[in-house]
Structure formats: C-alpha cells, structure tokens
What we know:
By secondary structure, this protein is of the alpha/beta class. It has 17 helices and 14 strands. It has 2 domains: about 20-200 and about 400-435, 3-Deoxy-D-manno-octulosonic-acid transferase, N-terminal domain (Rossmann fold), CATH 3.40.50; about 210-395, 3-Layer(aba) Sandwich (Rossmann fold), CATH 3.40.50. It has a 7-stranded parallel beta sheet with strand order 3-2-1-4-5-6-7, sandwiched between helices. It has a 7-stranded parallel beta sheet with strand order 10-11-9-8-12-13-14, with helices on both faces.
Amino acid sequence: MAIYRLLLWLLLPAAVLRLWWRGRREPGYRKHWPQRLGRFSGPVPARLIWLHAVSLGETRASQPLVEALMHAFPEHAILLTHATPTGWAAGSRLFGDRVMQAWLPWDYPFAVRGFLRHFRPEMGILMETELWPELLSACRQAGIPVMLANGRLSARSAQRYRRFGSLAGGMLQGLCQLAAQSEDDRRRFLSLGARSVEVTGNLKFDVRPDASQLATGREWRARLAGRPVWLAASTREGEEALMLAAHRRLQCPGALLVLVPRHPQRFDEVAGLVEQSGLRMVRRSSGAWPDPQCEVWLGDSMGELATWYSLADVAVMGGSLLPYGGQNLIEPASAGCPVILGPHVWNFAAASQLAVQMGAAVMLTEPQVLVDVLSGLLSDAGRRQQMAAAGLAFSTSQRGATDRTVRLVRQCLQSASRDADPAEIPPADPVAATSSTTHTV
C-alpha cells in the first residue's frame, strides 16, 4: 500500500495535466473538475445509496439496477458517480434529475475521504471491475459497506491482479458482497482471496432496447428500399480501417456500411479515414440521408445504437477484431440483429460463448475471414432470420440478474454494522476541507 500511495503522489501532476489535455477534445472532462480531488458542495439527502458506473457501458448496464433500487428503497436517494463524460452524459440521459451525479474522485486518501464525508452514503455499489485500494480502505474505516455488482474478471485481468498479491486480496476481502456474472468469474475472484461470491448473472441482459429507437430503425430500413446494411458497432482505434477494407472487398451490390465509433472524440478522425479510403460517406450529424451512391453512413451521434441495430441486417461488434476485449453483444441480440464477433471477446467471454452456442452469433477465427462470413450472411436471408430469433431467445433466457443483485444489496444494508460515522471522517489533507463545486447536473 505504501508503494501504491507513493506512485499516486508522483503521478498527481501528470493526472491533472492529462485531465486538462483531454478536456481540449472532450470539454466534459473539465466539468466540475475539483470533484476529482474530493471537493464537493450542495445539499445531500439524509439517506443515500451510491453506485459507481465508470463509463458509458457500465452506466447503460446499471439502468435496470438503478430503477430497481429506486423502487426497492424509496427512502434512499441514488448517487451515480462516473469517471468519463460519456458515462455522465448517459446517466443524465437515462435518469434525468431522478438521481444525483458526481465524479468519483481520484484514489487519494484526502480525495476519497472528502467524497465520503460530503455524501455519507449508507452503502456503495461498484460496477464490474472498479476496485480502488484507498477508496475501499476509507469505506471500511467509515463502516460503509461496499459490494461489487455485475463483477467480471477475465483470466488476463486475474493474472494482473495476482502480481499485487495482498493488495488485491485485501480489496476483495473488504467487500460486503461480490456479485459475479458467471461461474468462471466467481472462481477467479475466489482464487484471488474474495470471501463470498455469488453468481447473479449479467445485468446487461436486463437492459431492454428502447422501443421508439427500434421503431425508428425499422422506418429507416424501409426507407432504404431493400439495400443490404451491415453495422460496424462501437469500433475502436485500428478497427475502422479493417471495416473499410472489408467493405471495399465485399461482393454485395448496393451494400451500405454503417460505421459507429465507440468514442465520440474520434468521430472526426474516423470521418477522415473514410474520406481517405475513397468511399462515399454521409455523416449522421449532418442530418443528410444516404442516397443510393452513399457507401458509408458514419454514426457520429450518441445514444442511437438501438436504432442502428434495428436497421442493420448484420452487426460486427467492435473491440473484438483487435485485442480490446470486445463490446456488448447482448444489445444487438436483444434487438434481433445477427452478430459477428472477432476473436477477442474476453470482456464478454461467457455471453459470447453462449450466443455462439445458441446460434445468435458467429465468431471469427481471425479478422481476415470477415469478408467471407459477412458475404455469406448478407446473401442468406433465411440464416439471418434464424440468428435473429436465436438472439431474442438468447437475450431473454438470461434475465434476472437485477432481482438477484437487489437481494444482495438488501442483505448488505441489513447486516452491515456501522463502525464509524461518515460525517466525522477526518480529512487527510487540508485541500479536502474546502468545497467549491456542485455535484448535481
């Protein structure tokens, strides 16, 4: 822990500079920036449950859980914390003023104590992989129970955690509950020293696609008058070039590629790549409709993935062609869209395996075979219909994680003994004793 703290202090100037630099392209990073250092102001409800959803994917996955918590614990306010502007924007779009929002401070003793002293949560819920030593230590000292929800731990991540030995084990043992997505995740958490792990399933299966977006996608599909449409969804750096190359080689007359980058700060960069490829493009943000000569429709907008999934004949999941670990394949499956996965899916290993077994997805052995697999699916309407039906069966068969997670939350709240009053947590540094920034949107 001493080495960890020393490294954090050495990195503090670089962290501040990086935050400011990223704010040049994404101004949201500079919004309420003192909160990163544990400086908060504004009224706080007497009873509060805090849930941390670091970015866009975790925030979307938290939607059914947040809704269920508001129903199950109406006497508690919900505080949603994030680390990225896309996560904050998604939380605001999904919940409006029904929840409070703030940045989770960096993992410095003075910052996390300032956060806990201001909000005084009765309980904390961390989504998926967000374990921070100082944060968990401060919560333990303050008697605030913390659970990990929708927990996932790939074999690669487990190996990295083992390098930190007792530090990783101490974090896991400090959790009041650990809700794992799968049995494989459970075994890995236990091997690292976790005391109590229950398999609750993946919350992403409980996220229902927006009905209005699905309807819009069907309208767009009809307007395209039968053009074959394939979607490159949530692509990461380096993958767009592979998608564009595949589209140029695709032997499918009139095919339209809908290209949707994962991160909004890369929209202009990807537009430049399309222009360099020589393919004719229209940007969604322009409001223009793709005419018959348009070859690429760039989805440079936020919050419309369900529309794109409803529109497309086939979706190729970004983050899986190159070693990023994959993106959420459950979303297209629940919209009835056949899925093509690359070989790198460790972030969704259990779901990917089940989707392939049930016939909802096809997994490539290597990115080079994408054109052949894509051509086969676009030319076989019967197989696409079978995969669409399998996708709906796949997504509905795994629901129920929300109810199981809420049960564990209730157990945490009922059994936890409060050894410290969060309102009396002493600051570790004078900077945390002042406040200057509101925590609400």
